[in-house]
Amino acid sequence: MSRPTDATRRNPATGERYAPHLEPRYREIATFLRAPLVERLDALDIALVGIPFDGGVSNRPGARLGPREMRNQSSLMRSIHHVTRQDPFAQASIADIGDVRFSSIYDLERVSDDIAAHYRALHQAGVIPLSAGGDHSVTYPILRGLAADAPVGLIHIDAHTDTWDAFQGSKFHHGGPFRLACEAGLIDPKRTVQIGIRGAQNTAQGWDYSDASGMRVVFMEEVEALGIEAVIAEARRIVGDGPVYLSFDIDSVDPAFAPGTGTPEVGGLTSLQALQLVRGFRGLPLVGADVVEVAPPFDPTGNTALLGATLMYELLCLLAERCAAQAEPK
pTM to 2 decimals? Predict the structure, then answer.
């Protein structure tokens, strides 16, 4: 069982306890997956966190609005998984703790420091973060907060390797978080797999860096040739049994299903493949996860944010199951 929690709120009129995620979906404040909104960490197993920042994009902004719209769309989520029959809210203490706050939104290095400090506090409190970006530059400081003591493995699902060097004079951009993380010793490149990579580039620098450092790059053509189950098996082989972080860039999904992103690349995963891929990592010792690059201005239908929220639910199931397994008596 999870730790005791004060995250379950009380009805102010009756004093009775009630869970927001079981209320009618049009009620309550829009939080991630209808979890309670709390400020304290001492009762939590898993914290749902927003990072409304897109100052690291190289072209089209909009991902700063991703957390808010994913909160809105996650009001459509329910609790019990249709395949696993798992209820993450029954397995762990879960709450939305709001957004990371920034001391200087126009200073990229200070933004990185703010995010790192936020996640360092979560890590020290023993709370596992599930985050919604924001652009992909935010994953580097997340890892700074979670992996300062020892490198972790990485499952990175994306259209791009995000291992490029400095862009326009800055290293804090959404095309370089995993190069920075590798150089800082935050991830083990031999325990890193990048899935769904595709799209033409003006330089091979990112692909070459991933390859030279020892990362396993699974281009989309190989995903199609192998099939999702074989890709899952390969990824699990690479990351092994050690701690691992999972980062999901929504542009790994074909823009036919997820047009609301800053750098769309045709020929990607279907929505179903994306869900199956994430679900295939049950049982791994995840230290955290994120869904990034949802840019609502490029998708007036809201479907991209809905997919992002659904992926957050799938990831929450993985994290909650892990918490429950750790809490069981040996």
Answer: 0.94
